[in-house]
User: What shape does this take?
Amino acid sequence: MEPKVILKENLSSWLEALVSNYEVIAPVTEDGVLVFRPVLKLSEMTIEGTSGPAKSLREHFTPQTETLFHYKLYDQSADVAPPELEIRDRVIFGARACDAAALLYVDAVYSNVEPIDVQYFERRKHTHIIGLFCDKPAWSCFCTEVGDFLEKPAGMDVYLTDLGDRYYVEPLTQKGEELVALAKTQPANENDLSLVNETRRKALERLPKRANHEESCIAYDWDHPVFVELAKKCLSCGVCAFTCPTCHCFDIEECPRGSKGSRYRCWDTCQFEKFTLTGAGHNPRETRKERTRQRIFHKFKYSKERYGMLGCVGCGRCIANCPVNIDIRDVIKELERRR
Amino acid sequence: MKEELELREKARDLLEKGDVICVIGYGAGSTPFKTTPVFIEKAEDVDKLVWNPACVNNLAVYLRDACSKGRTAVVVKPCDAKSVVELIREKQIKREDVVVIAVRCPGMLNEDALKGFDTTDIKSVEWRDNKIVVKTSDGETEIPAQDALLNKCLTCDLTKSPIVDIQIGEPFERQPVKSEYADLEEIEKLTPEERRAYWARQFARCIRCYACRAVCPGCYCKECFVEKPCQLWVMKATDTESNWFFHVTRAMHTAGRCIACGECERACPMGLPLMKLNAKLRKEVAEMFREEPGRDPEALPTLGKFDMKNDPDPCGE
Assistant: This one.
């Protein structure tokens, strides 16, 4: 698949073409916060000069609150109706490499369970991703430490790199070719290629080197004192988990309204005290020590053991958002130092 | 820095003498514009304590747990000290269980001021008077207070800490450059419909991570109303109504107690303007009860007393 370039002046018409064929979801600044939202035109979007949206793509595949079924109760019986699931073909425009790579991990999580999660996979099937190279990584970014997908994008159909007055456009899949065909592009030349390499080199210089956490995480020490220290400062909020692109845990709740109602699932996290509280009152993860350990072990050790890959894509949201500056990079460094 | 060294010496003193079992303070964060809470239990660890414009957290949030284990020292800014006052007058901690170390505070860094910077290249963030100096590999940039400090610092009139056992450095002479209620004006000007639409948009963004609640020293209920099992009037679902219910109820629960440390708004990953709710309630409390929480540890809690004689708005006889 041949790389192309699209002049920025032609971006608007590409977006129009995309919007007429797909629902387009892109980063939008709302009250100063960058969020992924459906858009209709280029002017609504904020794609330049940021290091990515506040939240990951998670809500677009598993909404934070999602109805599983509606019911109506009678004396001896009940009617159960599945939720309306109308999913249009969609394009996510301007997703970052970390967020796209995270989808492959979440795929692995949902792939290993029966029954098949229809809602998740329907959304996945109908979603195409136009990714954007991160030329302004933030202090909290460490994708290059846990993977090579910034340079070799995974989980996306098209990869864009900002070259100033134009974007370097790499179609990565057949679908990507189709999406790019909707734009007015020209073939990339030598000059574009050297500019791309320069842009990538500059960004990579600001990011950490690849580490072999895949190997070292298997030996993480369950009784490591780092968790005693974390427990002192962690406040047990869910900001790390709810902005994380790979966290996927949910709770199932009911919304009864008289004789009818619905059952829904909504995001939950191991950081909340009640996540593991049992009906009998016992809580296997009673203190913050057990809870902080769970998150780190799940991201690294358990994910490697279960799915053969890390459950962390280094997006750094947990680091940037933690109100007490718990830094997952420092935690794993500590775990690997004292093996 | 002078204050930092003095702070470490006092902390060492407290721990060596056995006056306290722990000093809660700020330690170096994972980048120069962040700090992280540290819990110093041994005198040899006092060098972990730092004092710089990134000491934003209100460490009073840790006091209930810490003081239940033994006498604890806590490093505060004058604003945080108001939380200590509230915890004492709400009988959550005993005065004798806490040693308040108040440090000279020229104002704390608003991270938004770093938006134009390459945040991977920030070498240090320091005070110069009440301005902030950011050093990068390209040199240094001086940011004036108005653009560099947290909103609460621009409205702060607290030169002296309202409760203090050990003062580090000369208290910084504070003069508010704007009113705490200034940001309310634009909201109060809106029609009820516009205001409803404004708040609906804000609450719709909430992801119910409860970071706002977790960082709040006043939010210490053993079980938050929003998490009671089997209730039907506020759902775990993140619909706008339930989010709205959570935030407004939380704001009401802290009315008369909120000391405007701004931690809830700072902790929010979704940019909810929670301090506007709090400022509104603080204004109401100031007008109706003629007092501001957090100023006087001897006084009864604002909403915990019943003063018929001096009621500015008597009803009935």
Remarks:
- Residues 4-63+85-205 of chain A form one domain.
- Chain A has two domains: 4-63+85-205, 226-255+268-336.
- The CA atoms of residues 182 and 306 of chain A lie 40 Å apart.
